[in-house]
Amino acid sequence: MIPFEYLKPRSIAEAIGMLQPGDPDVRPVSGGTAVMLMMKAGVLRPSRLVSLRYVEDEYKQVRVTESGELHIGGMATLSSLEHNDDIKRGWPVLAKAFRKLSNVRVRNVAMIGGNLAHADPHLDMPPVMTILGARVQIQGARGTREMLVEELVKGYYETALEPGEIITKVIVPPMHAANAAYIKVTTRASHDWPTLGVAVCLQPEQDRLRHAELVVGAATDRPTRLASVARSLVGIELSDHALREAGERAAHELDVVDDQHGSAEYKKHLLSVYLGRAVRLAAPGAVN
Amino acid sequence: MDTSHKAMRVLGASRGRTEAVAKVTGRAEYIHNLRLPRMLHAKMLRSTMAHARILSIDTAQARAVPGVHSVVTAEDVMKVIPQPYFGPAFHDQPILAVGKVHYVGEPVAVVLAEDPYIAEEASHLIEVEYEELPAVFDEVQAAESKIVVHDELKPAGTFPDLKHLAGRRGTNIALDFQVRKGDVEQAFAQADRVFEHTFRTQQVMHTPMEPMISLAELTDSGITLHTATQSPSFVRLEIARLLGWPESRVRVRTAFLGGGFGAKLYIKLEALAAALTLLARRPVRVALTMAEQFYTITKHGTTFKIKTAVDGSGRITGRQCTVWWNGGAYADIGPRVTQKSGFTATGPYDIQNVAVDSYQVYTNLPPAGAFRGFGITQLVWAYESQADIIAKELGIDPVEFRRMNLLREGQAHSTGTVMRSAGLIEVLDRTAERMNWDQPFDRGSGTLRRGRGIGVGFKALVAPTTSVAMVTLSADGSCFVHASTVDMGQASNTTLAMIAAEVLDISPERIKVIAPDTDVTPYDMATLGSRSTFHMGHAIRLAAQDARDKMEALRAELGLPADEPLDAAALLKKRYGMQAGNIVGWGSYVPEYTSPNKETGHSENITPNWMIGGCGIEVEVDTETGQFRILRMENVVDCGAVLNPRIVESQVSGAAIMQLGAALYEEMEFDEDGQLRNASFAEYKIPGITDLPASIRNDAVPMHQYNGPFGAKGVGESGAFAVSSAIAAAIDDAVGVRLTSMPMKHETLCKALRAAVANPIEETLT
Amino acid sequence: MSTTRISFELNGQPVWAEVEAHHSVLDVLRNTFELYGARESCGQGLCGCCTVSVDGKVVSGCLALAIDLDGCSVLTVEGLDSGGELDPLQQAFIDCGAFQCGFCTPGFLMMSKQLLAQNPEPSESDIKHFLAGNLCRCAAYPEIIQAVQLAAHRMNKQEQV
User: Fold this and answer.
1) Which CATH architecture best describes the domain B34-135+209-259+263-293?
2) Three-state DSSP class for B150?
3) Using CA atoms, how far apart are residues B169 and B367, in angstroms rounded to an integer?
4) Residue B766's pLDDT is what?
5) Which domains are present in chain C?
6) Cα separation of A70 and A57, whole Å?
7) Closest to B262 measured CA to CA, from B657, B610, B717, B590
8) Which of B70, B495, B586, B671 falls 20 to 30 Å from B15 in CA-CA distance?
């Protein structure tokens, strides 16, 4: 760990000013857990850290707009989101996902913006955010822009953020009549990283699905949408056989690598089974 | 020998730990917390090669970093310790690598600085040039390989049965131990059935929560090691030997250990700390990170080939065991594991024809040594797993099969030692009872299947070893226990205080158990192998009895009536006319033991006691994914008399849950170059609170150890013995798949289940 | 390297310290204030031995920067019995034998304190979920669960009186 300068800007504008795009040795830090781990491991050696803890309160808050959108400040801690009543009510799949992230101590300090910007492929939140159609508001020296979470995460610890940009808001559309579920599959100790994350968002209509979305995480280097498999679930009878077949097609489509949590083959097998389980969890009425 | 069954006043009742308040207020002393004025922090540079010659070490850049005190290599160490090799069995381990590195992670150089952050940064600036050598990692391959880890074997002379290995070259086998009885080949020829299987276990690490730590400082009387060690007496004698000093100039003190489990034994960081303080002439703190512990000492991975002959009725008539223990690059206490556990490889069974070959093998991996169970868990894995396979094949209930074959009181074990106070049947029966084994069991239908399994394992107490203790009384009636037994969470302080209290007829609250300090507490072999309740318990009992004898003599001398209760305060005040003086009692205990014959492994008295652990498991398998979970765990032990029920239960439970880690989650994963990929809790998963089986219960069968203090013996490891095999048996019972390698992975089971669907014949998997 | 002065409340007392930016909360608690209840074990925030409470929220002291303590209120295990009496959680841990080597114990106590503050009647599943990020190699988990339940029960009874 090399000594560094630690700055505490009191506003987002001030923070952006300090980040000086073009200087790779200057980094923003929110909760700090990920950054400190990387610094202790010697993987990251910044000369200056710009803390995002002390910016305006509005960036730490959660509100639901009149149109039913969930607006989460980029500096809101994961634990504040875990306990937020609006989220529990309006986006239960998200509340459940927040509860499972890492551990309580991390959730107490980690911020949603930092979490998304870190793009650790094992995180539970990006697939869930993706399936809900969430977008992020990004601020930087060149102004403000928005993009879908799906577009934000590009690969293994890689995002579409430009140097000097900060995620300042996460916007989640209202769920209306959609049912969503996320299953975190672990294959070793239960407090392990997930081997596989399966997120589904469905719109059931009696015993069929009117609309379906499917995003897979953890087994891939970024949350991966399986659009054609999802489409194939629409309008059909959701028998065990049909779900298993869809699961197998999903497994086939997915680009997966071996790691300590399982071989590529096993992860694909898990997906072939858990796709159906996620669908059953999200829309029990629509399944036989 | 104490064979009294009289009602006990203190022992036998649950009592909280003496240090309870200190531990819950965060004030308990750990060497991890020690700061010495002017101390320097040490950070190590470790080898990145599994096997290589060191061509050069360039420390110039590191030394130039502001705040760095010095950078030390083996060359510097040899200025203060000319022969810098240590180890309890072989003097094969250098304080810092000399000429060669033998595994990835071996310490090569050390940076000293007042600021640990600076020391760490500077360590990355040391440049080492290596010439790579071929390396060997697998224990079976290494036993035959031309790739030799050490050019010459260097047994230490501490164990006479290793002498014949001195100077041997061209081999990786550091010990081959054997047992021979009867004629196994004939037994196989004549058997109704012969079963042959190979079982494997993986390398794991103890990961005590307090990572290893030693501080060393020079004092006016020599050197003091403040170290988190389970074996202070050994550290003193070994440091004295390395320095060429008398023991009177070496002081070793320790505090509570934040976990030991066998990791903190013999020499770990002490020799390095001693060398560094001699070089720097300032106190030095050598502290490891959790990750570095993986590069220091581990548990042996094993390959165990077991071949068993059975007659028509299900009686075992012959058994051949070949065990390869992966000892890693340095022997540590591995040869002891190979021998002392090796002789139990045939299991707790009555078998007339036996052959055991147990090999301690050098490889280019981090060293393996003592780990809770001392090799027993690896052996039980094989022999209990095979017992279930055989029982299933023959259509015999697994409990019945064991009843048919387990050794009974008065029968001779394969080594010839007659079994005494070994509650094998009692533990098996109690485990079966707790599991409702006689009741029908619902294996489920649909995709979730359930199964159950049961097993029993045993361990011999390592012998011969010595414990010496003192019990002193002061003139207000306070009592002090001087023992070098180290409390690492197994409540030894509490137990020893209770024993002294029982003999002296005083309240344990009046007793202080002095923290081990070789200047103050007498010789103890070490705190390991569940030996302390037995050995130090006896020593304390004898010391307290000696104190009583002395008080009786004093009472007589003072002309007091013989029936007056023995009250140290009253006696001393009368003797001296004031509050002065002490009663000093001492005791020493070493059990009877007969060394095994070199060719046959035969001994009339190979162990003072047998410790026994049984386990029953119910498991539920998700047949679609291979994921499984443990619904129920019944742990039962024979620990002789239960001196403190609540403590005994915590030891049984703790050992069993810890063993779940090795059974299911833990594995040190190396790449083909011997690089460890997962030396961190992020990727090395030990059991957490959410991994507990839905139901866990613990029990001890009522037994009396004929030669134990108050009928007791050790219990720290017993809960671990039969866990893994019981899980494998339960899975086999549920879905007809037999896993033969640890850790048992969901993926392995899944693959087997899918294969079984395509091919209905059950396979045994490695 | 330059130091920054931080002023904060530590176990109810106002204190200050000079810290460098890279010093962790653990560094300052142990080196400046000689409070050894919080300990560095895994160094990755995964074991919980370094748990302390900052403004009522448990954090990993081995990863949190001391410089962020400025203006905060910090509670460590040493602050639990500062009234001279053991905290109900500490007493319950003793009564249930919820520790063996004791190294992880302050961490479990600090975690449990936040748990009971936000959920006075936690179920066994609530307790396990909350403590999932605290490791105990001695595996005193069953006793720890019992101790938290016992403490909760006693504290609720007290509340009702």
Assistant:
1) Alpha-Beta Complex (3.90)
2) coil
3) 20
4) 31
5) 4-79 (3.10.20.30), 88-160 (1.10.150.120)
6) 17
7) B717
8) B586
Q: Which residues contact C68 (CB under 8 A, 6 or more apart)?
A: A32, A51, A53
CATH of B20-29+465-589, one of 3.30.365.10, 3.40.50.620, 3.20.20.150, 1.10.10.10: 3.30.365.10
Check residue B598 and give its pLDDT: 86
**What whole-number distance in Å separates Cα of residue B120 and Cα of residue B493?**
37
Measure the CA–CA gap between B449 and B734, rounded to whole angstroms. 6
Residue C1 above 80 pLDDT?
A: no
Reference B1, options B749, B707, B759, B671; nearest CA is B707
CB B716 within 8 Å of CB B653: no
In this prediction, residue B760 carries a pLDDT of 39
Report the 10 Å Cβ neighbour count for B756.
16
Average pLDDT across chain B, whole number:
96
Give the total residue count for chain A: 288
Contact call for B688 and A189, based on CB within 8 A: yes
State which of A130, A151, A172 marks the end of a domain.
A172
Q: Provide the phi-psi class of B578: left if phi over 0, else alpha when psi is between -120 and 50, else beta.
A: beta
Nearest CB neighbour to B750, from listed A2, A260, A266: A266
Q: How many C-beta atoms lie closer than 10 Å to residue B48's C-beta? A: 16
Instruction: Count structural domains, chain A.
Output: 3
State the pLDDT at residue A288: 66
Average of pLDDT values for A202-223? 92
Domain shared by A211 and A231, yes or no: yes
Residue at which a domain ends, from A172, A202, A232? A172
How many contacts does B have with C, using Cβ atoms within 8 A?
A: 154
Interface residue C1 vs chain A (CB under 8 A):
yes
* Residue numbers of the domain that contains A200: 179-286
A165 and A85 within one domain: yes
Reported confidence tier of residue A206, pLDDT bands at 50, 70, 90: confident
* Element containing residue B653 per DSSP (H, E): helix B645-660
Residues of C in contact with A109 (CB under 8 A): 57, 59, 64
Task: Check residue A20 and give its pLDDT.
Answer: 73
Per-residue pLDDT averaged across B536-544, rounded?
98
From C139's Cα to the closest Cα of chain B, the distance in A is 5
Query: Among all residues of chain C, which has the CA nearest to that of A4?
Result: C21
Q: In a 3-state reduction of DSSP, which class is residue B438?
A: coil
C107 in contact with B at a CB cutoff of 8 Å? no
Question: Which residue, chain included where needed, has tokens 């400190």?
Answer: A36
- C22 contact residues in A (CB cutoff 8 A): 1-4, 39
Classify domain B298-407+418-462+597-761 at the CATH topology level: Aldehyde Oxidoreductase; domain 4 (3.30.365)
What's the farthest any 2 CA atoms get from each other in chain A?
Answer: 61
The answer on pLDDT for B503 being more than 50 is yes
Of A221-225, B230-234, B262-266, C99-103, the least confident = A221-225
Position of tokens 């005791």? Answer: B587
- Whether residue B161 has pLDDT greater than 80: no
Place of tokens 């996620």: A278
What one-character DSSP code corresponds to residue B685?
Answer: -
| Residue A257's pLDDT band (cuts 50, 70, 90) | confident
Task: Domain ranges for chain B, please list them.
Answer: 20-29+465-589, 34-135+209-259+263-293, 298-407+418-462+597-761
Residue contact C135–B688, C-beta within 8 A = yes
B20-29+465-589 and B298-407+418-462+597-761, same CATH topology: yes
Say whether both A117 and A158 belong to one domain: yes
Predicted complex ipTM:
0.98
Per-residue pLDDT at B763: 37
pLDDT tops 90 at residue C28: yes
Q: At what angle do helices B376-394 and B723-735 cross, to 10 degrees?
A: 30
